[in-house]
Design brief:
This protein is of the alpha/beta class. It has a domain at about 145-270. It is about 40% helix and about 20% strand. It contains eight helices and eight strands; from the N terminus they run αααβαββαβαβααβββ. It has helices spanning about 1-15, 20-35, 40-55, 80-95, 140-145, 165-180, 195-205, 220-230; strands at about 65-75, 120-130, 135-140, 150, 185-195, 245-255, 265-270, 275-280. Strands 2-1-3-8 form a four-stranded mixed beta sheet. Strands 4-7-5-6 form a four-stranded mixed beta sheet. Strand 1, helix 4 (about 80-95) and strand 2 form a beta-alpha-beta unit. The longest helix has 19 residues, at about 40-55. About 40% of the residues are buried.
Length: about 280
């Protein structure tokens, strides 16, 4: 499994140093939409940073986030063995890419120095009938992670009821509270469902989707389109300097819920939506 470890190290390098084409194209469109001024200059800096990071193979952002893996694993493979391989790859990638050490012990406040620790990296497994191993990696910085919100509907403080319009109000409230602190233009992942933990993971999974994916229920797609337009009228703009583009994409998904519960989670990702996939088999 040594070659798999090497593949995961290279996945780390790719995700840390180069944005996916759909994210980069959306940022270029945002740059083109801005008029001359501070918002345009902010997007100039963002695009130049993307270019340089790819050219010199160095992380796009100094905060390389908490490594989060979403893995589709064939039933014959061992989850424990794969966890061990990912931990070894994480230690190696931290040194070689390099990644900033971000794993801090809650009790001692000591940094492990290699991005591994108690339940870090974060790994979500899904067993599959497929004969290949699919590994999705997300590196999401803490600034935008802190900007996310979880809501229990109805939420009287924002006038949100247990319906899709209530979900819309949750999304708008999240971005209003975030303003520019999470480094917009943002990508948003939204999860709706029965429990707090369920919607939190579901929302983060939506950040793995392409910005222009356009698949799913018609009502959800209509909500995504409407809320994206409304968010970009807020005027927060690139890096919070004002402008026409505050959000470049919104992806929403849902699960069934309990009759007494209606939870919504909004996961906020900064302009550096760093994600990538390794298929092994």
């Amino acid at each position: 499994m040594l070659k798999l470890k090497d593949g995961i190290v290279e996945l780390y390098r790719k995700v840390a140093t180069s944005l996916p084409s759909d994210v980069e194209n959306a940022l270029k469109k945002a740059h083109a939409a801005e008029e001359d001024g501070i918002a345009k200059k902010a997007m100039d800096v963002v695009l130049e940073n993307i270019r340089l990071a790819r050219k010199i193979s160095r992380p796009i952002c100094q905060d390389t986030g908490v490594p989060t893996f979403f893995i589709r694993i064939p039933e014959q493979l061992s989850q424990k063995e794969l966890r061990d391989i990912i931990a070894d790859a994480t230690r190696e990638a931290t040194e070689k890419v390099p990644l900033r050490p971000n794993a801090v012990d809650v009790l001692t406040d000591r940094n492990s120095g290699d991005n591994t620790g108690r339940n870090v990296p974060i790994i979500y497994f899904e067993e599959t009938d497929e004969h290949v191993l699919t590994i999705d990696l997300m590196l999401k910085g803490s600034g935008c992670e802190n900007a996310g919100q979880t809501y229990k509907l109805p939420a009287e403080e924002i006038g949100a009821q247990r319906d899709l319009d209530g979900v819309r109000k949750c999304i708008i409230d999240t971005v209003f509270k975030a303003q520019g602190r999470g480094c917009p233009p943002y990508t948003l992942g939204v999860g709706i469902g029965a429990t707090k933990d369920q919607v939190s993971v579901l929302a983060k999974r939506q950040l793995l989707k392409k910005i222009d994916e356009g698949t799913g229920d018609e009502k959800i797609l209509a909500l995504q389109e409407r809320v994206l337009e409304e968010l970009n009228r807020m005027g927060i703009g690139p890096l919070g300097f004002g402008g026409k583009t505050t959000v470049i994409g919104v992806n929403i998904d849902y699960n069934h819920r309990h009759p007494a519960s209606y939870f919504v989670d909004v996961s906020v990702c900064c302009w550096a939506n760093r994600r990538g996939r390794l298929v092994w088999g």
